[in-house]
Automatic annotation (TrEMBL):
<keyword id="KW-0547">Nucleotide-binding</keyword>
<comment type="pathway">
    <text>Isoprenoid biosynthesis; isopentenyl diphosphate biosynthesis via DXP pathway; isopentenyl diphosphate from 1-deoxy-D-xylulose 5-phosphate: step 3/6.</text>
</comment>
<dbReference type="InterPro" id="IPR020568">
    <property type="entry name" value="Ribosomal_Su5_D2-typ_SF"/>
</dbReference>
<dbReference type="GO" id="GO:0019288">
    <property type="term" value="P:isopentenyl diphosphate biosynthetic process, methylerythritol 4-phosphate pathway"/>
</dbReference>
<feature type="domain" description="GHMP kinase C-terminal">
    <location>
        <begin position="224"/>
        <end position="290"/>
    </location>
</feature>
<keyword id="KW-0067">ATP-binding</keyword>
<feature type="region of interest" description="Disordered">
    <location>
        <begin position="55"/>
        <end position="75"/>
    </location>
</feature>
<keyword id="KW-0808">Transferase</keyword>
<feature type="domain" description="GHMP kinase N-terminal">
    <location>
        <begin position="92"/>
        <end position="167"/>
    </location>
</feature>
<dbReference type="GO" id="GO:0050515">
    <property type="term" value="F:4-(cytidine 5'-diphospho)-2-C-methyl-D-erythritol kinase activity"/>
</dbReference>
<comment type="similarity">
    <text>Belongs to the GHMP kinase family. IspE subfamily.</text>
</comment>
<dbReference type="Pfam" id="PF00288">
    <property type="entry name" value="GHMP_kinases_N"/>
</dbReference>
<dbReference type="InterPro" id="IPR014721">
    <property type="entry name" value="Ribsml_uS5_D2-typ_fold_subgr"/>
</dbReference>
<protein>
    <recommendedName>
        <fullName>4-diphosphocytidyl-2-C-methyl-D-erythritol kinase</fullName>
        <ecNumber>2.7.1.148</ecNumber>
    </recommendedName>
</protein>
<dbReference type="InterPro" id="IPR036554">
    <property type="entry name" value="GHMP_kinase_C_sf"/>
</dbReference>
<dbReference type="Pfam" id="PF08544">
    <property type="entry name" value="GHMP_kinases_C"/>
</dbReference>
<feature type="active site">
    <location>
        <position position="162"/>
    </location>
</feature>
Length: 318
């Protein structure tokens, strides 16, 4: 007998990202992070098998995918990706999330995880964190465990800084390493968003290394928090901020060209590098304008682009 749950794993944008100089004992920077989810998403399917089906589970890999399998002391997890993201199975956040959930809840079963990638890597869009959170949510559904259970949140925080956000991706303010929820805000609705990524990506570790070379204290997040509390989109657009962005621009100078190009386009209400880059997002005045600019960015500049919109709680469940 096999049971399966399929979820959308949405990308995220940082409306405010304030990185503080210095690292804690875990090697993390303190971060003030205000995030919102968007409709661009990977698809994550988690299938649970009984032990008699474990060999079949290991063979259930879609044609053309990049498979990997690894075992822990209790559960066995087979991971299949639609493309090779350059990460070994044991280092993949989705696999790590599954294994830690099984250990935390004492589950001894076999699982197949299949991930269809749509979120480009090394873009600051949180794809790997969202994939991990979707695996956690799928297991919660299979086990009838609440996503707000403190054990679930603890596992999410242990996997990565942004993973906890994706358990309930309402607009939210997080601190610590960007993994401790302070407060959430009313959903923004379907705000038109344009994503543009230059040809090169920015590895997260490289971005923080470049930040450490030229550290700068961030500005306070209060203005963005107040804007979201009021639902004031104009103030949100005016207050977009990321002090990790300059590090991304030094690593990928083409990011500056993307920002300059977007800044000249009619219908763009605000723009910013998201996360550690290299993706730049723009808030547009209409969905039609976002679509037009996405096509223009690809056709005239050769940049990956996507017209999307903001989403909120429950966005993962298909």
């Amino acid at each position: 007998m096999a049971r399966s749950v399929t979820l959308a794993a949405p990308a995220k944008l940082n409306l405010h990202l304030g990185i503080h100089p210095g690292r804690d004992d875990r090697g993390y920077h303190r971060a003030d992070s205000i995030m919102v989810a968007v409709a661009l998403a990977d698809r994550v399917a988690v299938t649970e098998f009984d032990r008699r089906s474990s060999e079949d589970a290991a063979r259930r890999v879609a044609p053309g995918s990049a498979p990997g399998a690894a075992s822990g002391p209790s559960s066995r997890v087979c991971l299949a990706m639609s493309e090779d993201v350059g990460v070994a199975t044991r280092d993949n956040t989705a696999w790590i999330a599954a294994m830690r959930m099984c250990r935390e809840f004492g589950v001894s079963r076999d699982y197949q995880i299949e991930i269809e990638k749509n979120i480009p890597p090394q873009s600051g869009l949180g794809g790997s964190s969202s994939d991990a959170a979707s695996v956690i949510l799928a297991l919660c559904s299979l086990w009838e465990v609440g996503a707000s259970d403190e054990r679930v949140v603890s596992v999410a925080r242990s996997v990565g800084a942004d993973v906890a956000f994706f358990l309930d991706p309402r607009p939210s303010y997080l601190v610590g390493a960007g993994d401790v929820l302070v407060e959430s805000y009313p959903e923004l609705g379907d705000v038109p968003i344009l994503l543009v990524r230059p040809r090169a990506g920015v590895p997260t570790a490289d971005a923080f290394g470049a930040f450490d070379e030229r550290p700068a204290s961030p500005r306070d997040a209060r203005a963005m928090r107040d804007a979201l509390s009021r639902g004031d989109l104009e103030a949100v657009c005016d207050g977009l901020y990321n002090n990790l962005g300059p590090a991304a621009l030094r690593i990928v100078p083409e990011d500056a060209v993307v920002c300059e190009w977007l800044g000249r386009q009619e219908g763009v209400r605000g723009l910013c590098v998201t996360g550690s880059g290299s993706c730049v997002f723009a808030v547009c005045d209409t969905h039609e304008r976002a679509c037009d600019l996405a096509g223009h960015a690809l056709d005239t500049q050769g940049w990956w682009s996507c017209a999307t919109m903001t989403v909120g709680s429950g966005a993962q469940f298909c």
